[in-house]
From TrEMBL:
Gene3D superfamilies: 1.10.1660.10. SUPFAM superfamilies: Putative DNA-binding domain (SSF46955). Pfam families: MerR, MerR-DNA-bind. Keywords: Coiled coil, DNA-binding, Transcription, Transcription regulation. InterPro entries: DNA-bd_dom_put_sf, MerR-type_HTH_dom, MerR_fam, Tscrpt_reg_MerR_DNA-bd. Residues 88-115 form a coiled coil. Residues 1-68 form the HTH merR-type domain. This is MerR family transcriptional regulator. SMART domains: HTH_MERR. Signal peptide: none annotated.
Length: 123
């Protein structure tokens, strides 16, 4: 199938499909005219890539285990768990940072409110 048909079937833009090709996530056959031709299996590959992108993984991370999960169950791919562990640690660090920012904002807002209460406008 051509890239336009794959895009229509998966809901993924042609630009994204070309990017997946550049990253080595998809491997279409190149015709003499330069057109990419994808196997029927490419649709499943794209859906799998989308699943992992929606988990917040990078294309580089996905590339490290994609072949294994496409040919075997995820549970049997030893490369997956360390990537998940790393991503979870990143998310936990981001949550801590966001909680700190939230606390700082709340304190600043309370400080503003406290200052307003102590300074009533003179009539």
């Amino acid at each position: 199938m051509k890239i336009g048909e794959l895009a229509a079937r998966t809901g993924v833009s042609i630009r994204s499909l070309r990017y997946y090709d550049e990253q080595g996530l998809l491997t279409p056959v190149r015709r003499e005219n330069g057109y990419r031709e994808y196997s029927p299996f490419a649709e499943e590959q794209v859906r799998t890539i989308q699943l992992y992108l929606n988990l917040g993984l990078s294309t580089e991370q996905i590339a490290s285990f994609l072949h294994c999960v496409l040919t075997s169950k995820e549970a049997f791919c030893k490369e997956v768990f360390p990537v998940y562990r790393q991503k979870l640690a990143e998310i936990e660090a981001q949550i801590l940072q966001l909680q700190s920012i939230k606390t700082n904002l709340e304190e600043r807002m309370q400080s503003i409110l406290d200052e307003r209460e102590t300074r009533e406008p003179e009539d």
